[in-house]
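Two proteins follow. First one:
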Amino acid sequence: MYKPLNPAYEEHALFFNPAYMQMRLKGNEGPKHYLMPRGVSADLDGNVTFTMYAPEAQSVGVSGLGGSYGGDIVPLQKGEDGYWTATYANVLPGFHYCHFYVDGKPAMNPQAPFGYGGHEVENFFEVPDPNNDFYICKDVPHGSVHMELFPSSRTGAMHCCWVYTPASYYTDPERQYPVMYLHHGGGENETGWVWQGKINYIADNLIAAGECAEMIIVMACLYDINYDHPDEFVAGDFDALLTRDCIPMIESRYRVLPGCGSRAIAGLSMGSYHSAQVACNHPGMFGYVAMLSGSFDDRWYRWVNCRDVIAGSKTFQQQTRLFFMSVGTGETRLYPQMQENIAYLKANGITAGYFECEGLHEWTVWRKSIRAFMKQIFREDAQ
C-alpha cells in the first residue's frame, strides 16, 4: 500500500508532495488514476528498493555516489510488468546520490527525486535516520524561501540567490535580523542547500525549539563565469559578486541588522574555501565564519592566504567572534588537519569551534555541521 513519507525525504524541484500517479483511460469510464511504484523507497532498517520502468531494456542497474554504496553498479531484475527492481540492505542513513543505467548507459529515473550536483542533474534518495530528525518537515512555524535576482557588476550577467526568512519575518514587520551567507560546493549551485541540505527545515526546527537565533539565510551561486575564460576553476570573482553585488542587494531589500556581529559566512567543500577567503579578504565584515569540510591547506583556487590574515590582522582577530570548522571522520584528506587548524586559530587569539561526526564528503555530514554552527551564532546580537 502507498504510504506518504515526510516531504523532506522526497521533495525536489518539481514537487513537494509526490503523487506517484498516472492517468490512464479505462474504456468508457473516462480517465482513472493509478499509483506507480516509487523509483527509490527506503525504510528505517536501511533496506532500499530501487525501481525503474524500462520495458524494452535488456539490463538496468543503479549506483550510489558516496555513503555506503560507492561507485559500483548493482543490477535490478526485470518483472513481467516492465518494471525493474531490486532491494539492497544495510544502506547507511541519510542522503545519497544515485545513478541509474539502462543497457549500460546513464539514465534519469523520473519516478525518483532529483537535484543538481556534480555539474549535472542527478537522482537521489534518503534513508530515514531514526536518531536524527532535525532536518525533516515538522509541524512548527515555517519560514519562507524567496528567489532574488541581481546583476553581476563584473560580467553583467543576472544571478539568482535563494533567501530564507524565518516565520516571524512577516508577523513582526519592524524587526531586523542577522544574516548568514551560506554557500554550496563544487559542481552545485544555489539550490543545493534547500533541496539537498534541507536548510529551511533545519532553521525552522532549531528556531521553534529555541536552539538558534532567528536569522535570514542567503544562498548565492559561487560561479560568476567569465565566458572568455571558461576553464578557470574559481569561475569568476566570487568575492566581488558577494561583497559588491549580493550583500548590498540583500541589505537594501531585507530588514537586516547592521554590523559584522550580525553577519556570518559559511560554506561546504569548495564553498568553505570561498567563504574563508572572502572573510579573510575583508577583515571585520563577518563576525562568524564556518568551513564545513575545508581546511587551511593550499588549494588551487586560493586568492588570499588565510593563515597570514589569521596571524597578522588585528581587525580579523578582534572582530571574528567564532571561526568554526567541521569534518566527517571518513574524510581522509581533511580529518588529519583539523586539530592543527583549530590550534592555529586559538594560538592567534580567535575563538574556534569544531564539530565532527561519522561520514564522508556528503550532505549527511554538512547538515549536521551547519546545525551545530547555527546553534552558536548571533546569540547575543539577535535577541
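Second one, unrelated to the first:
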Amino acid sequence: MNAPTSIWRQNWTLLAITLLISVSCEKKPSLGDPPTAEDAEFTFMPSASNQNIIEFTANNATLQASWDFGNGATGEGTSATSPYPFAGTYTVTLTVQNSGGSASSSQDVVIIQDDPSLVSSPIFNLLTGGSSKTWAVDSASIGHMGVGPNPSSASFGDYPEYWAAAANDKSGAGIYNDRYTFHLQDYSFDHVTNGDIYVNAASAGNAPFTDTASCIVGDFTASTPNAMGETWTLNQGADTSITLSGNAMVGFWTGVQTYKIVSIDSNEIFLRYEDSQDASLAWYIRLVPEGFVSDPGPPAATYALPIDFEAIQPTFTTFGNSTFGIVSNPDATGANTSANVLETVHGNETWAGLLVNLDAKLDFGTETTIKLMVWAPDTGTFRLKLEDQAAPTQFVEMDQYVTVAQTWTELTFDLTGTGTLYDRLVIFPGWNVPNAGTFYVDNIKQE
C-alpha cells in the first residue's frame, strides 16, 4: 500500500513542478512603458494676435494628449489654443497617455485684464444675455420636444419628423420645471432640476440620478438634485454645439451632454442631440427664456367619431417611426368593403403608433365601447389608449388580441365605468413588437 502511494506522490510533484515552470516561463504581453512626468510637461505663451489667447504645446508630441484649460473648456492634441476673456488665475492640466498608462501635470496661467471682445460672438450674447440668462423648455408650443432620424434626412433636415410633442404633452414628467442658466463669467452653468428630470427609458441605468419611477406620460421620471456651478463649452464650427460638464443636462435625458445648436435667437434655442442607446435616433428640445410666453401656433386639427376615412380624411400624428396614410382598401372583402382605409407601417420602436385629437370629450355613460376594424399582417396585441388633452396624465389603456391575420377583424374595447372624459385617441397596432409590419385600420366608432 505504501509503494503505490509514494509513486503517486512523486509523479504529482513532478507534474506540479513542470506546470509551475511552464506558467512562470510563459511570456507576458507588454503594454509599453507608461508616460513619465517629463512627458506630461508643457509650455505656453500668448498668441501674437491677442494676449488673452494662450497657445499650449506638449513636450512629447508622440503621445495622445488632452487638456483642461481651467476656464470650462477642454481640448485634444499636443498643440492647443484657448481664449481667456476674463482676468484671473486658471489652472491648466495636460494629461498624456499611451497603451502603458497616463501622466498629468498642471500649471497656472495668469490673465492680467479682461478682453470682452473674446465673448462678443452673437451666440455668447444670446446664450447669456451678456451676463447670465435662464432658459426653460417651451412647453406651451407644439414641437417643443421630439425625435427624428440620425443622421437627419435630406428631406426634413434637423427636424423631429418621427414624433413631435403637443403643447404640455409631458406635464408631470419632471421636464417642464427644469431651469438652465448660462453665465458668461467663467462659462458657469446651473441646472435647477426642482428634484427630478425626465429620462429616456433606454437610458434609465445611465444618468445622473438616484432612482427612477415609471412616468404616467411615458418613459421615466428620476429623482435628481440640482447641478450647480458646472460649466458649458461652446464648440464653434460647421455644427456649433454646447457641451455641459458634471451632471448638468438639458431637456430629455438620453445619456449625452453635447447639444447641437440648430437655431438660436434672443427668445428661442432649438437644440438637437443624440441617443446614447440608439445611434439611429436624434432628439430635439426647444428652450425659451424663463417667463417668456411663446406663440403656441395654430391648434392641432380635431375630428369627431365615427372616423371612416371617406368624406372626411383626418390626419393622424405618428410616433415611434411609424407612418400614416389614407389609401384604397387593399382587401375590400369580408367584414370591410370600405373604399378608403388608414395605412400605417409600424416603426422600429415597440411603442410605435398613431394618435388623433377629437373635437369633443368622449362620454362613456351610455355608449360604453370603442370599436374599430383592423387588418393585421400577423396575430398579436392591438392597444387602444384614450387621453385627456388638457391633462395627459389622465388616460386609460386597453388591449385586444388580433386572432386572425391578413383579414379584416373588428375589435371591441369595453370602457364601462370610465369616469374621466377623453378627447385624444391613440392606437398601437402591433403593440410591443418592433417593425411589426403594415396594418390597415378603419371604421373607428363609439357605441
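SUMMARY FIELD: The radius of gyration is 30 Å. Helices lie at 2-25, 122-128.
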